[in-house]
């Protein structure tokens, strides 16, 4: 990896981290406040409808954004073609959701969902104006602008949601705040990006992009269905309240897992794509990415499992206590989620759209069947199944990369096992050190965090683990750059 690309990658990681953690932090704060005002069924109703919005958004994206990033030198007409394609499909799916909303409301036997979905679907046309300019910035590794935009729009959404909730808008506060944040997102993006569409559309360009993007679309569609079918099943088989508990558990679990995965996806895909013709350099980059990712992801998930109960009560009050078991299971599965993201990004970056599609489709098809079979045993059984599938998917993903770049399952296990074992030791000690003591639960949680952190960071520094050294280098570079500016 060249020095320039390495520096861009490190800078991109830093700014992407600021953007993702900042945005999720704001969303997290908003969620805490709203959880105290609204009811589980309010979140459950939004969760019931999310799969329909998500599937529509996947079709609108069309995989063409990924095709633009994967292509070495996309032209202006390529960008313009994708822009108008997105707009067309946004309008198309808004009309579909408008006319099918009564059927969807009837499926859940909740009439109020009809109008909620009709208004909520407006976000599709709003988002369609941001997809291509955001892709343009991502392609050029301009993550600073993307991060600033995301943080500001999240703040607008927070203020809107809390204000509307206090004003008594109920579930509508979640709908309107999402739309307002989306509009803010688009306005800021168009101010920050120099790219503008022209009145050009090329079917030839669309055809060429779709040769790769079409398979990414199908893969993304399967992924979207797999991820969101959980909410659909819970909402239909159980209740909006239980879906609300699940939704809240998933939101809290996603603060670290989704942010890390998003950062890795946003930065590693364009960087890996630039290295697609140099397999040895790509292999070293992937290896370093995996070591760095697991060094953060493993301990974060384990620590959340340890402090799950007091954390939930502190943040959301005791009315959300039934969500704690769901949260712990989700965290256990998410230890492998970001690792799987790195592995699948390698396949995409190499332009292996056919392999990527077959792999994702096969995994998710098996996953959906397993979920449907497990749901009869209850929500927790379904979540344990989803957790186990993450580990199976890692085995499959890493085996494929063993064939593509010579970095397979056993080599990856060798690179991550140290972080995994150290995480397990730190988690066990932190949990049982104060187990069943008469101390205040919040005080116990603070002590557990301190014990866990001291063990994990201290041991990783002692053994000079590569993940520790990588973040130490990044931190030193950031501090040095700040002092230079001063």
Describe the structure.
85% of the residues lie in helices and 0% in strands. The protein is mostly helical and 486 residues long. It starts with a helix and ends with a helix.
Which characteristics define this entry?
486 residues, mainly alpha, 20 helices, 85% helix, globular
Instruction: Let me know the number of strands.
Output: 0
Write the H/E string, N to C. HHHHHHHHHHHHHHHHHHHH
Structural class: mainly alpha
Strand count, sense and barrel status of the largest sheet are: none
How large is the count of helical segments? 20
Beta-strand content estimate: under 5%
What's the arrangement of secondary structure elements?
Blueprint: H1 3-37, H2 40-61, H3 64-70, H4 76-108, H5 113-120, H6 123-128, H7 131-139, H8 143-166, H9 172-192, H10 203-237, H11 240-274, H12 279-306, H13 308-316, H14 324-334, H15 337-349, H16 353-374, H17 379-405, H18 409-433, H19 441-462, H20 466-485
Helix pairs in contact: 1-8, 1-11, 2-4, 2-5, 2-10, 2-11, 3-7, 3-10, 4-5, 4-10, 8-9, 10-11, 10-16, 11-12, 11-14, 11-15, 12-14, 12-15, 12-18, 12-20, 14-17, 15-17, 16-17, 18-19
């Amino acid at each position: 990896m060249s020095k320039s690309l390495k520096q861009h990658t490190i800078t991109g990681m830093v700014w992407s981290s600021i953007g993702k953690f900042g945005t999720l932090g704001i969303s997290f704060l908003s969620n805490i406040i709203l959880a105290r005002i609204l009811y589980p069924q309010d979140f459950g109703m939004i969760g019931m409808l999310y799969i329909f919005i998500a599937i529509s958004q996947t079709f609108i994206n069309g995989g063409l954004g990924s095709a633009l990033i994967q292509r070495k030198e996309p032209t202006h007409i390529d960008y313009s073609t994708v822009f108008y394609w997105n707009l067309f499909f946004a309008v198309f799916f808004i009309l579909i959701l408008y006319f099918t909303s009564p059927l969807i409301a009837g499926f859940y036997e909740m009439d109020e969902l009809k109008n909620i979905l009709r208004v909520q679907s407006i976000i599709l046309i709003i988002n369609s104006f941001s997809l291509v300019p955001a892709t343009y910035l991502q392609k050029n590794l301009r993550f600073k602008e993307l991060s600033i935009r995301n943080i500001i729009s999240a703040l607008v959404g927070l203020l809107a949601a809390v204000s509307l909730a206090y004003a008594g808008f109920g579930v509508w506060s979640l709908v309107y705040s999402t739309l307002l944040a989306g509009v803010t997102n688009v306005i800021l993006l168009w101010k920050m990006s120099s790219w503008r569409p022209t009145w050009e559309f090329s079917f030839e360009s669309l055809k060429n992009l779709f040769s790769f993007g079409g398979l990414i679309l199908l893969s993304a569609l399967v992924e979207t269905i797999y991820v969101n079918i959980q909410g659909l099943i819970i909402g239909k088989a159980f209740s909006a309240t239980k879906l609300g508990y699940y939704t809240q558990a998933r939101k809290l679990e996603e603060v670290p897992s989704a942010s890390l995965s998003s950062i890795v996806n946003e930065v590693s895909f364009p960087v890996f794509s630039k290295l697609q013709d140099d397999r040895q350099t790509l292999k070293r980059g992937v290896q370093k990415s995996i070591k760095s990712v697991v060094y953060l992801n493993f301990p974060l998930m384990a620590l959340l499992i340890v402090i799950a109960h007091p954390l939930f009560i502190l943040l959301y009050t005791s009315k959300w206590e039934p969500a704690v078991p769901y949260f712990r299971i989700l965290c256990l599965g998410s230890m492998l989620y970001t690792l799987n993201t790195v592995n699948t990004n390698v396949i995409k970056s190499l332009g292996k759209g056919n392999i990527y599609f077959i792999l994702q489709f096969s995994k998710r098809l098996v996953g959906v069947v397993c979920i449907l079979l497990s749901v009869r045993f209850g929500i927790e059984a379904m979540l344990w199944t989803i957790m186990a599938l993450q580990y199976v998917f890692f085995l499959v993903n890493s085996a494929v990369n063993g064939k593509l770049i010579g970095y397979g399952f056993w080599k990856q296990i060798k690179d991550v096992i140290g972080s995994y074992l150290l995480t397990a030791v730190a988690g066990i000690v932190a949990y049982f050190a104060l187990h069943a003591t008469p101390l205040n639960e919040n005080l116990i949680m603070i002590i557990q965090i301190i014990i866990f952190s001291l063990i994990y960071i201290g041991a990783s520094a002692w053994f000079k683990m590569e993940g520790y050294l990588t973040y130490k280098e990044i931190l030193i570079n950031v501090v040095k750059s700040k002092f230079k500016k001063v």
